């Protein structure tokens, strides 16, 4: 049966059943060898891959321990903390006068809030169907600007920190901290006397066996300083070392004589 209406022709076919068939998934038995149970076959494979990755990660952590820096020293005022690399761009942003000082709220709340808020609302703000970057100039331009800004700020923060850190550790130029002489290698077989092991505040920087740490190696300090000079350093401090850590005059003299004997 056909019905003509202008230029369109409608054809009806009585062989097509009008009865709706439920949407039932086919039986997996119809596809032998092409399917497998989720448990335990599929999940076991996933667990085995995860176990191999975990073991590999543990091997790396054991064979290459984390590069720890110097021990925390509250008396070291020259230390400049640095955030993790993924926060370096925000750290650098706060160095600019328009995002710090009286405008610190702009750098800590307003700018990051607008950026991350726009990122979360991007699916609703840019709901167009076009997917080619060239056809979406506004979204593409904003994303490229943000990426370039983040990469630049991250690089700038790391670069500035590296320059200042190297300068404080021995870079040239006047007015800065001068580099200390290279530390003498520590003698691992050296055993300190009881007069030293009783000085917990001293061992915190110079080590249990005077091998050095935050402070210099003192295993042969007697070759450069005599007892009087050592006692003066203990009383008044020197460089980043504070004075007055030991109050007893007799104990200071006894410790100074012991250190002066190390040559």
List keywords for this structure.
263 residues; two-stranded antiparallel sheet; Helix Hairpins; 9 helices; Cytochrome Bc1 Complex, Chain D, domain 2; 3% strand; mainly alpha; 3 domains; 46% helix; elongated
Topology:
Blueprint: E1 2-5, E2 8-11, H1 38-63, H2 88-93, H3 104-120, H4 122-125, H5 137-170, H6 194-197, H7 200-206, H8 227-236, H9 249-260
Antiparallel strand pairs: 1-2
Helix pairs in contact: 8-9
Give a verbal description of the structure.
- The N and C termini lie far apart (116 Å).
- It contains 9 helices and 2 strands; from the N terminus they run ββααααααααα.
- Strand 1 (2-5) and strand 2 (8-11) form a beta hairpin.
- The radius of gyration is 36 Å and the shape is elongated.
- Helix 8 crosses helix 9.
- It is 46% helix and 3% strand.
- The protein has 263 residues and is mainly alpha-helical.
- It has 3 domains: 34-66; 85-170, Helix Hairpins; 194-260, Orthogonal Bundle (Cytochrome Bc1 Complex, Chain D, domain 2), CATH 1.10.760.10.
- A two-stranded antiparallel ribbon has the order 1-2.
- It has helices at residues 38-63, 88-93, 104-120, 122-125, 137-170, 194-197, 200-206, 227-236, 249-260; strands at 2-5, 8-11.
- It comes from Brevibacillus composti.
- Pfam families: Cytochrom_B_C, Cytochrome_CBB3.
- It is found in: Membrane.
- Residues 164-184 are annotated as: Disordered.
């Amino acid at each position: 049966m056909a019905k003509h209406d202008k230029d369109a022709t409608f054809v009806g076919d009585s062989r097509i059943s009008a009865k709706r068939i439920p949407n039932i998934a086919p039986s997996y038995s119809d596809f032998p060898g092409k399917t497998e149970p989720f448990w335990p076959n599929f999940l076991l494979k996933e667990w085995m891959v995860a176990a191999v990755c975990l073991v590999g990660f543990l091997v790396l952590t054991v064979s290459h321990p984390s590069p720890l820096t110097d021990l925390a020293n509250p008396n070291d005022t020259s230390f400049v903390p640095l955030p993790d690399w993924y926060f370096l761009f925000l750290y650098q942003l706060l160095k600019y006068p328009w995002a710090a000082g009286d405008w610190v709220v702009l750098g800590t709340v307003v700018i990051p809030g607008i950026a991350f808020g726009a990122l979360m609302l991007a699916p609703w703000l840019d709901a167009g169907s076009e997917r080619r970057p060239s056809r979406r100039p506004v979204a593409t331009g904003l994303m490229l600007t943000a990426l370039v800004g983040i990469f630049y700020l991250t690089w700038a923060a790391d670069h500035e920190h590296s320059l200042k850190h190297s300068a404080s550790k021995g870079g040239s130029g006047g007015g800065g901290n001068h580099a200390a002489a290279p530390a003498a290698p520590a003698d691992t077989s050296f055993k300190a006397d009881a007069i030293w092991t009783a000085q917990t505040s001293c061992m915190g920087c110079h080590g249990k066996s005077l091998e050095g740490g935050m402070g210099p190696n003192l295993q042969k300090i007697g070759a450069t300083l005599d007892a009087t000079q050592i006692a003066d350093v203990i009383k008044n401090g020197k460089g980043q070392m504070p004075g007055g850590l030991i109050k007893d005059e007799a104990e200071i003299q006894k410790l100074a004589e012991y250190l002066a004997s190390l040559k």
